[in-house]
């Protein structure tokens, strides 16, 4: 064998060798994700046609055995013993699916449950786009593992109808300017997430602005309180002034009436003389002056008096 023939044989081996992938282990609770990963691995190695053959698929024993080998690598011992009697990759795959998914009636019941979950699913007001789309895609993937497939257009419309009213603007824009039948789920999710980030940025208010707003409100309330207080004080003061004015006018009128009244027949009860009332009596005025003088004398400081006694010799 020449050197060139050896190189060509190496090239032929390298091009025909299949890539190696680490197969996930099948567990009682992870069949849906396991089936998705295994399908990708088999497709990458050109072996998925052994599981789902079409009209043009030719019988290829080597590919079939290789597909079985990949499936066996992902099974625990107890699972391996149960399906070892099946001879083709399709039989092995269907047996595993039947065991984990259930019989046809159970499968239909699960499909109906997932349909209800898909239709009733709604995004909460405080829920993020990532959290909601995770729930939505989880239902879609579970449905796919049961043979129920949702097209992207159906999932996109469900997504746009399930978001809260705060996304109404972006939803209307997508429906108006985009073809929902051609839009992928990832594109719809990306647009909603972009709009969500803008909403978050608008809700963020700087601390300085908040403090200024609080100060303005406080100042306005204080001003209103001062104005109300001042108004009440001025009102009370005005009422007091009106009352004093009315009292003064009343006293002036009474004094005028007394001055113009005929007192010639009036008898004073203090001195029993005619021509005046008791409160106008001259004796009363004298007594008041005397009392005031006595009060002034009583207020004076006491004086020390000295007496001299002369003894007789």
TrEMBL record:
<feature type="domain" description="CCHC-type">
    <location>
        <begin position="268"/>
        <end position="283"/>
    </location>
</feature>
<protein>
    <submittedName>
        <fullName>Zinc finger, CCHC-type containing protein</fullName>
    </submittedName>
</protein>
<feature type="compositionally biased region" description="Basic and acidic residues">
    <location>
        <begin position="239"/>
        <end position="259"/>
    </location>
</feature>
<dbReference type="Pfam" id="PF00098">
    <property type="entry name" value="zf-CCHC"/>
</dbReference>
<dbReference type="Pfam" id="PF14223">
    <property type="entry name" value="Retrotran_gag_2"/>
</dbReference>
<keyword id="KW-0862">Zinc</keyword>
<dbReference type="InterPro" id="IPR001878">
    <property type="entry name" value="Znf_CCHC"/>
</dbReference>
<feature type="region of interest" description="Disordered">
    <location>
        <begin position="210"/>
        <end position="259"/>
    </location>
</feature>
<dbReference type="InterPro" id="IPR036875">
    <property type="entry name" value="Znf_CCHC_sf"/>
</dbReference>
<feature type="compositionally biased region" description="Basic and acidic residues">
    <location>
        <begin position="216"/>
        <end position="230"/>
    </location>
</feature>
<feature type="region of interest" description="Disordered">
    <location>
        <begin position="1"/>
        <end position="22"/>
    </location>
</feature>
<keyword id="KW-0479">Metal-binding</keyword>
<feature type="compositionally biased region" description="Basic and acidic residues">
    <location>
        <begin position="1"/>
        <end position="13"/>
    </location>
</feature>
<keyword id="KW-0863">Zinc-finger</keyword>
């Amino acid at each position: 064998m020449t050197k060139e023939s050896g190189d060509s044989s190496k090239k032929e081996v390298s091009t025909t060798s299949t890539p190696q992938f680490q197969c996930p282990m099948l567990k009682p609770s992870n069949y849906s994700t396991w089936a998705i990963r295994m399908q990708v691995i088999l497709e990458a190695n050109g072996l998925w046609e052994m599981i789902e053959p079409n009209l043009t698929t030719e019988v290829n024993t080597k590919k079939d055995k290789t597909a079985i080998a990949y499936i066996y690598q992902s099974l625990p011992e107890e699972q391996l013993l149960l399906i070892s009697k099946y001879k083709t990759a399709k039989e092995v795959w269907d047996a595993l699916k039947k065991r984990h998914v259930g019989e046809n009636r159970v499968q239909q019941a699960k499909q109906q449950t997932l349909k209800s979950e898909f239709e009733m699913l709604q995004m909460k007001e405080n829920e993020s786009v990532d959290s909601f789309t995770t729930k939505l895609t989880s239902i879609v993937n579970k449905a796919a593992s049961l043979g129920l497939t949702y097209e992207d257009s159906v999932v996109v419309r469900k997504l746009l109808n399930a978001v809260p009213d705060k996304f109404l603007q972006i939803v209307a824009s997508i429906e108006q300017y985009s073809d929902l039948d051609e839009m992928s789920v990832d594109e719809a999710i990306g647009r909603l997430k972009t709009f969500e980030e803008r909403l978050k940025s608008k809700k963020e208010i700087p601390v300085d602005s908040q403090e200024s707003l609080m100060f303005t409100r406080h100042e306005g309330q204080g001003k209103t309180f001062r104005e109300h207080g001042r108004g009440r004080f001025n009102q009370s003061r005005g009422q007091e002034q009106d009352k004093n004015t009315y009292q003064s006018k009343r006293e002036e009128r009474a004094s005028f009436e007394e001055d113009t009244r005929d007192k010639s027949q009036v008898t004073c009860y203090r001195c029993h003389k005619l021509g005046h009332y008791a409160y106008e009596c001259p004796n009363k005025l004298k007594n008041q002056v005397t009392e005031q003088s006595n009060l002034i004398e009583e207020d004076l400081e006491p004086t020390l008096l000295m007496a001299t006694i002369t003894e007789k010799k």
